[in-house]
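Bumping my old thread because nobody answered last time. Still need a sequence for this structure:
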């Protein structure tokens, strides 16, 4: 049976609790724009992400700073993005059908974005994307929440 849809107010409550450094940019009963800084590993720099979420649609996730993101040597575009210019992350790679509106952004989208950023950093150094076929047994990457 389909689980209940999480209302926007519920999404905000859990995001704010888990990530007090984040902020609501816009909130209506069916639309949320949330921004926060993510440091994907203790040695990483910080990235600012924006989650743009309309009830009934998959959330869109962007890296809004730094822009443009540094690319691996010889690469003309970022890997695993929907939009290179907008730096819109493709977080559903190998996770087809894994987002639905009964889920919490704080539990799924934020960790997926942190994981993407970790793979991104490795890619800038090695030129290789390590994200393919990652099993779910893998630990969620470290996220510094302050």
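Sorry it took so long. Here it is:
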């Amino acid at each position: 049976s389909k689980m209940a849809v999480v209302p926007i107010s519920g999404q905000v409550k859990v995001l704010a609790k888990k990530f007090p450094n984040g902020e609501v940019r816009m909130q209506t009963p069916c639309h949320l724009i949330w921004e926060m800084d993510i440091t994907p590993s203790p040695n990483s720099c910080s990235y600012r992400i924006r989650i743009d979420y309309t009830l009934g649609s998959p959330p869109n996730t962007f890296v809004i700073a730094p822009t443009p993101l540094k690319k691996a040597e010889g690469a003309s575009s970022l890997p695993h993005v929907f939009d290179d210019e907008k730096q819109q992350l493709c977080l559903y790679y190998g996770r087809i059908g894994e987002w639905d509106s009964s889920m919490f952004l704080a539990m799924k989208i934020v960790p997926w974005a942190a994981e993407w950023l970790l793979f991104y950093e490795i890619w800038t150094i090695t030129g290789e994307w390590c994200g393919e076929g990652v099993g779910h047994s893998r630990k969620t990457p470290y996220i510094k929440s302050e």
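Residues 133-142 have pLDDT under 50 and may be disordered. Let me know if any region looks off to you.
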